[in-house]
Amino acid sequence: MSLRLLCVIAHPDDECFAFGGALALAADRGIETTVLCLTDGQAAKNRGDSTSSADLGQMRRAEFHISCKILGVTHAQLLDYQDGQLEHEPLSKVAGDLVHYIRTLKPHVILTFGADGAANTHPDHTTVSLAATAAFHWAGAAKRFTALGTPWQAQRLFHQTTDFFLPDRPQPLPAPWTLTLDIRSAFDRKVAAFRAHTSQAPLAQFAIPLFEQHGRHELYTLIAAAAPQPAAQSTDMFEGIVE
Fold it and tell me: What is this structure's pTM?
């Protein structure tokens, strides 16, 4: 049995902007990776040459799959939630969908955003964080969502965090990190994956210089674990994971 990683995001381009280094490093190690994206990004400010919201959604779906291929992601899937409206969805519905995928995919480690909403304090990011965190716990509980398959308890849940802020944007309230990933070997792939989101080219123009300045590492907070343990600094999210 191989190690498995599940990354839960809100929009196409989240996978590379926030988690690209972690996903590429895991792929380099032969870890089976899945990215589950809840929306197709139809509400994006940058529209490319799309002619409608539906057209933009189709463009962004295609870009997402190209980006994931560059990062070496094993499985990439988009759900059909509405971009920009996740906060209005019942938590039990979103978390229930994620419980289904967790019990099906059986990941050892789950990555998602922090509850601060990440660098741009996006409410979709916060909603994904809350739903994925609930699903991490509920997927392992025999009394929760009994019709959604056999319980599976992932061993670690990490939230993405940061040590810098975006200029001229509201500042999030990031959690202190416990995991520092050196992503220098994956940096070029992270940038290439971001550039694959051609409809979001203005965002790439803004963000890639920030990657160049700050983005040679990614930071995560260990939020929950299957075994009691003290908070400690780490450089490997799979260290000590039992297959």
Answer: 0.97
